[in-house]
Amino acid sequence: LSGREFGSEKTWIIAELGIDEDRSGKELQEFVVDSDLQIIYLRQQQHDLPQFKNYFLRVLKNNYQSYSLLSSLIQQMYNCTLSNGNNTDDCSKVDIQRMALSYKQTSTVESIIKAIYALTAVAANLQKKPHVLTKW
Questions:
Q1: CB atoms near residue 81 (< 10 Å)
Q2: Angstrom distances, CA of residue 119 to CA of 70, 122, 123, 130
Q3: In degrees to the nearest 10, what's the CA dihedral of 59, 110, 103, 120?
Q4: Which element (helix H / strand E) includes 89?
Q5: Whole-model pTM over 0.70
Q6: How far is CA 86 from the centre of its chain?
Q7: CA–centroid distance for 42 within its chain
Q8: Taken in order 92, 97, 100, 102, is the CA torsion positive or negative?
């Protein structure tokens, strides 16, 4: 990219790799408006997915004992133990409101959900047409 293509002497391309919540909406305020500087600003977009949050918290609360990864997660996050419910620090006593307060969506959740949907669609199609697998 040359400056001539964009009508300025210098062109800067800024690619923000991590989302800084303190700076969101403030980008590029430090640059002078009347300068000859051309800036192309690239930033990852993140969508809040409240349906996923509700689903994940429900699965975490109701099924954590069935999955070792979820068991480890809940034990580490809430400093609790898996037991029969008699202990004061039993994981079954962690309520969903407390879980919701500590929930934070990462920037990769949306991409992971789309990838899982794609893999699920492929698996469903392969189940409908098992002869496709024999051609490989």
A1: 12
A2: 22, 5, 6, 16
A3: 10
A4: none
A5: no
A6: 35
A7: 18
A8: negative
Query: Amino acid letter at 112?
Result: I
Assess whether pLDDT exceeds 80 at residue 117: yes
Instruction: Specify the amino acid at residue 64.
Output: Y
Q: Return the structure tokens found at 16.
A: 């923000």
Q: What is the pLDDT of residue 44?
A: 65
Which two structure tokens, joined as six digits, stand for 48?
């809040």
Query: CB 54: neighbour CB atoms within 10 A?
Result: 13
With cut-offs at 50, 70 and 90, classify the pLDDT of residue 27.
low
Amino acid letter at 115?
A: A
Q: H or E segment at 20?
A: none
Yes or no: say if 75 and 91 are a contact pair by the CB < 8 Å rule.
yes
